[in-house]
Amino acid sequence: MAAETGDPASAGEAPESRQQNAQEEKPQAKDQKPAKPDQQPKAGDAPAGGEKKLSNAELKKKAKEEKAARRAQAKAAQATQQSGPAGQQSQGGEAKGGGKGKSKQDAQQQQQQQHHHQKPGQRVVPVAPKEVKPAIPERFSHLPVARRIKTTQADKDVHPSVLIVGQYMATFEMINPTERLETTLLAFKKVIENYTTPQGTTFSRHFTSHVLSPQIVYLTACRPMCFSMGNAIRWLKLQISKLDIDLADSEAAQVLCTAIDQFIETRSTMAEPIIAVKAVESFSPTEVILTYAHHRLVELALLLAQKCRYKIRVIVVDDPYERTGLKFAKWLSAKGFERVTYSTDLGGLRTHLRSATRVLLGAEAIFSNGAMYGRAGTCDIAVAAKEMNVPLTALCETINFTERVATDSLTYNEIDPERCTEEECRLLFDTTRPEYIDSIITELGWSTPASAAATLRKLEEL
């Protein structure tokens, strides 16, 4: 029968024979695939149920339409499972737009589907998680913020000792700018000691650009450098450029390491006690000193004054965010200071200024125009002291002087990474204009804000 239906000559077959063949064939199911060409009935045959018989061309066309419909339905179902359109409601009534309504189970199903459609031998490339950066208001986007960089993401040329210093700075384990300066230079000493000049070049020409620069870039990425670190790095680069090109690596390293030790000794270690002595020399025996939070130079000056048997009363106004003044006030009481007054914030500042005879503040840096860079809140104290005619003295090492100029707190500053959102953020420092400062005491002696530029010129001659 199959051979007869596929033969064109069968068109002339008797009607009785064709009717018998049509009754023997079962009606084709709707979802059943069409029979092969050699098994399909002829165009003139009619089904047993009296329905209109379809031709071969019509049967093929119908089968193609059903197959296309099934494919379209399968694609639509797969697309719905992977991601729904924006605004479409899930079974729980939550919107799927933007993928925010996906549950953990949906994500697992999607991973299973991707794995199912993966070709044999095809490698699955994991998607690296995006780096989460702190949100910063747009108006403060020009200011830097400290961030902890994983050691695996650092440049391969960064020395292990520098990696450790960067981690400490990023987590604010080292806050004092002088301490940050000393630690950085000591880490650079280890870099110099472990350095070997490549063949075909010299120490002075290769070390700065190929070895020292990656260390500086890494430290700056962890946390913006303080002004003393910038001054020390410029000094170190100058010392490297002065090296004789004929010096052996061991001799060049010895020269630089000795110079670094002397720099730390003269510009940092010896500067602090000298400043304390000169500050006490300006005190009267019965001073009432108001200070803000805690600063290393203020601590040394007050301790020296007590050893000199000055009967000094201390008022500590604390930083409401970090509370370093509370620990300082307790330390003063433990050291034997008879009267120590503690204020939790700036709310009672003017009340305390009425009884103060001097405001003593530690500076993070001094700009060439005489402005003072200090802990956030320093400017508020300086302005209130000026209005109430209380003299203000700033203590600062000359290594923290900078040739830069600032008149506001947004030119140079740093954002607190712990208190920062898209709507608001806290600045770590502020700038006090020179007219609110009466005197500046450094290891070179007593000076005024107007002589800051002269102090910088004097340092260049040393």
Automatic annotation (TrEMBL):
Matching entries from InterPro entries are given as:
IF-2B-related (IPR000649), IF_2B-like_C (IPR042529), NagB/RpiA_transferase-like (IPR037171)
> Could you tell me which SUPFAM superfamilies the record lists for this protein?
NagB/RpiA/CoA transferase-like (SSF100950)
Cite the record's Basic and acidic residues compositional bias ranges: 23-36, 50-69
On the tree of life, the source organism's domain of life is Eukaryota
Q: Does the keyword Ubl conjugation apply?
A: no
Which GO molecular function annotation, any one, does this entry have? translation initiation factor activity
Q: Which PANTHER family match?
A: TRANSLATION INITIATION FACTOR EIF-2B, TRANSLATION INITIATION FACTOR EIF-2B SUBUNIT DELTA
The UniProt subunit note reads as follows: Component of the translation initiation factor 2B (eIF2B) complex which is a heterodecamer of two sets of five different subunits: alpha, beta, gamma, delta and epsilon. Subunits alpha, beta and delta comprise a regulatory subcomplex and subunits epsilon and gamma comprise a catalytic subcomplex. Within the complex, the hexameric regulatory complex resides at the center, with the two heterodimeric catalytic subcomplexes bound on opposite sides.
| Membership in a protein family | Belongs to the eIF-2B alpha/beta/delta subunits family.
Descriptive protein name: Translation initiation factor eIF2B subunit delta
